[in-house]
Amino acid sequence: MRKYLFSEKQHSKKGANWTYEEDQKLIDYIKIHGEGNWRTLPKAAGLQRCGKSCRLRWINYLKPDIKRGNFGEDEDDLIIKLHALLGNRWSLIAGRLPGRTDNEVKNHWNSNLKKKLINMGINPNNHRVNQTPIRPKQDPSEEEEEEESVNSSS
DNA sequence: AAGGCTGTCAACCGCACGTCT
DNA sequence: AAGACGTGCGGTTGACAGCCT
Question: Lesser CB count within 10 Å: N end or C end of chain A?
Fold first, then answer.
């Protein structure tokens, strides 16, 4: 878990990590008034953030029913299956995984599952088994050529 | 020990869509 | 019908931590 930071960036708030105080303000406000009205919420809650940021922070991090921690094997399998069916519809995929958010699923896919599929010889874009076996890359230019051939074949 | 590299994840941005007037 | 506004979604970025050399 990342620590709360106090950088110069926080003067403008944009791009700055949320502080404990900001989180508390948001939680308290939503406890009382409920979700919604994201445009007016920051001002009403005394936050120097845009509504979008508040919504994202709540949905991805502060919501009480969020399940945090590692994805299990069964969750991985489910995500792979759902991605094959739905494509990059992360919110739909996350909807099938209780306690998981679209952002979390998307990050997990990009950092873990994509590689997992590639190692298994499966194209993560179309979930088709590659004809040619995976071999270690020797020359960076080979990678570009491979990419081009994938693009041209789709 | 230190500097570079890579992986992870929170957060932002831009666009699309739905609703309201 | 169409423009304004609010919200949701997916792609991308940036910062940090840990590993490697």
Answer: N
CATH 1.10.10.60 fits A69-129, yes or no: yes
Architecture of the structural domain at A8-62: Orthogonal Bundle (1.10)
CATH 1.10.10.60 domain locations along chain A = 8-62, 69-129
Report how far residue A69's alpha carbon sits from residue A103's, in angstroms, rounded to the nearest whole number: 14
pLDDT at A135: 46
Nearest nt to A94, CA vs C1'? C9
Which tokens in the block code for residue A58?
């709540």
A100-149 pLDDT per residue, tens = 888 888 889 888 888 888 878 888 877 877 755 444 444 434 434 444 44
List strand C contacts in A 81-140 (CB < 7 A). 88-92, 102-103, 106-107, 110
